[in-house]
Write a structure and sequence with these properties.
six-stranded mixed β-sheet, four-stranded antiparallel β-sheet, globular, single chain, alpha/beta
């Protein structure tokens, strides 16, 4: 069964930039999502969290149109996510950027060539203008100018993530998707990346949707978090709200040893900002 199409007309909720309604996902007999519904408000950092295998990244791929759910509906910018173009003829995919796990840079391209890929693929801009835009985006993510000519193998893990982020924002999107952006980074580099995401959100007016299992990142930058488990959304709220949940799965996730440590670190960071 395909995704149910309700209408290609704009949604009636102007505050929601993404609406996921009763999405089910099956691969053969395996059920990844049984009934997932959530909405993302314009201008927030919305995180999707949960244990391994709960379908976080699968849901993100469905939202951006790389996978099709077995049933249910997904709307971006008020339109069915499978619609190729809006009424003004502007493709939906030009309005969002995606940073995939581990950055997913092309190994045979330089950093600048990687960042330029969306511009070369989706615009008719001149090579000179593309170079200028790429240079600006590289600077925006805090990379030095001389990194532009380096290949991914010559960059550190943190630099590769920043390069992937530059590529995700090169088309000036309204909506930014991040799939496990800090996975494998040391805590200091991860914290710096989180700060960069918040800075870009404010500078560019972004709505950010982040899939992560990094509890420190959730405490640092997420406005709201949806916790997936048992094929559905177990809860949606602020980190403070979720940390006080009575749901046993959420309680284990946020109040286990790692969860308590992240909460204590967040409280310490907050206290440090006040002093």
């Amino acid at each position: 069964m395909g995704v149910a199409v309700t209408s290609l007309a704009p949604s009636q909720n102007p505050q929601s930039i993404i609406e996921v309604s009763h999405v089910a996902t099956r691969f053969g007999k395996a059920v990844v999502h049984a009934d997932v519904s959530l909405s993302v408000r314009r201008g927030e950092v919305f995180a999707i969290a949960g244990g391994n295998g709960c379908g976080k990244s699968t849901l993100l791929r469905e939202i951006v149109g790389l996978l099709t759910p077995s049933s249910g509906s997904i709307r971006l910018f008020g339109l069915d996510s499978r619609a190729l173009e809006e009424y003004d003829g502007r493709p939906i995919h030009r309005r969002f950027g995606v940073m995939f796990q581990q950055g997913a840079l092309f190994s045979s391209f330089t950093l600048a060539e990687n960042v330029a890929v969306p511009l070369r693929e989706f615009t008719g801009l001149s090579p000179q203008l593309i170079r200028e835009i790429v240079a600006v985006k590289i600077a925006m993510v805090g990379l030095p100018p001389d990194s532009a000519t380096k290949f991914p193998s010559e960059l550190s893990g943190g630099m590769r993530r920043r390069a992937a982020l530059a590529r995700a924002i090169v088309m000036d999107p309204e909506l930014l998707f991040l799939d496990e952006p800090t996975a494998g980074l040391d805590p200091i580099i991860a914290a710096g990346f989180d700060d960069l995401v918040l800075s870009l959100k404010r500078l560019l007016g972004l709505t950010v949707v982040m899939v992560t299992h990094d509890l420190d990142s959730l405490w640092r930058i997420a406005d709201r978090v949806a916790v997936l488990g048992n094929g559905k959304v177990l809860g949606v709220g602020t980190m403070q709200e979720l940390s006080q949940s009575d749901d046993p799965v959420i309680r284990e996730y946020f109040q286990g040893q790692r969860g308590r440590a992240a909460q204590e670190q967040a409280a310490w960071n907050q206290q440090g900002r006040r002093t």
